[in-house]
# Entry
Amino acid sequence: MDFLDNILLYQVEKPLLFTQLYFWGFFTIVLAGYSIIYRNKAIRNAYLLIVSLFFYYKTGGYFFSLLLFATVVDYFLALGIYRSQRESARKLLVALTFISNLGVLAYFKYAYFFVDITNQLIDLLNNNNIIFLPHFEVVNLLALWSNTLTGTHFDVATIILPVGISFYTFQSISYTVDVYRNKVAPARNIIDFAFYISFFPQLVAGPIVRAAEFMPQLYQDYRLTSREMGHALFLILNGLIKKMVISDYISINFVDRIFESPLSYSGFENLMAVYGYSIQIYCDFSGYTDIAIGVALLMGIRLPLNFYSPYKADSITDFWRRWHISLSTWLRDYLYIPIGGSKKGFFRTQINLLITMLLGGLWHGANVRFIVWGGLHGLALVGHKLWLKFSPLKAIKSRFARFVAISSTFHFVTFTWIFFRNQDMNYAKQMISRIIEFFTDNDELFLVPKVIFAYKEVFFLIIMAFVLHWLPSEWKEQYRGWFIKTPIYVKGIIIVLIVFFIYQIKSSDIQPFIYFKF
# Structure
């Protein structure tokens, strides 16, 4: 029974991840069943829905109920929007969509933030003898209801962020809004809609998929060319290498140590940790996306591109066209444009950009450091717009100018990761002060050779990761194309060798994907 419990029941300490051997056993079984029923679209969609719900249960436990809640509510709200003839009723139903989805998201993501602010105001009123009010306390209502109804023993005093809630919430909102805008028809039935919301490869960390891209595929025949299969396998292997070979190794052996205690390390170590985190978060997040797109493609579902060599960007605007593309386009279409976009004049456009990026920062977490991170990107976007409008140098296209543009964009983005990654603003200030010391204190320079020698494997991996990232796109296409064209038995040999290599050097503890926490 213990064996079956481990396979079938959710375990807090062992969530289901792409980097686990268990997942690939699970996916092999899924593909085996899929190969039998894939020709029947209705059965295929229902089968993948069941598989996806099981995957989310194994990943997020009882938060599985929140996914079901969002699915049922938004399915019927979208139907109401589609069938309603009165514009006022349609707008009311859209408002209910935002209230239900963002209400649940805000409760789980920002409850501590709002309660803390409220208690600070209460302290201010109490201390000034204006009125006496007791403090509020955070209560996990979902855990409380579960304990009451099913006899579980969850901690009701702690709210844990459900895995993937931000991603499927944004996806569900985009669906109902697009139905309202007449950009997409409602799903034919609740099973198809539930499949769209819960499709397991991209469920917990994106990409955020639009209904107009995804829904038509539910009603198409399965198709997968040999070239697409090769591409899917390449993406999966590429994603596993990014995550388990590069990101996890850099994280465990260097980056995490420095960020946990910046003052315990030299300025050079702090500086290298920032560069290390820059490539770590890219390899971690884009690695997940590569695997998700590859796994989905093997089942005949095509997901959109989410990363496009972001550190090759020659401006901050270009960076956001390349980084987490599904989120940046979501913020553009469902936040930036609705509040006015660029149609209210040049000055209002800059305000709208700042608001969008500040809220984009807040989306990552209820913490000042995320607001600072989003605000810095917002100011940079405004600065770039001003440059394009007023600078006489904007048309320079020389190679040197492009190098300067790419380098400055990369270093700005890397600098902002300091606020994104650190535990709070105090740690961020400590790290910045240590880095400044490296450039101003001559004694720091004598430590550089020792630090390089001590972390030679880590630094080598960081450099190699950046070199691979900055390779010309044509070179990358060549080795991807070579893999795709190889015979199936050669692919098999390569897969076995790469998997063996990954599991030889992988960390003892499997590291969760960074964006699971968002």
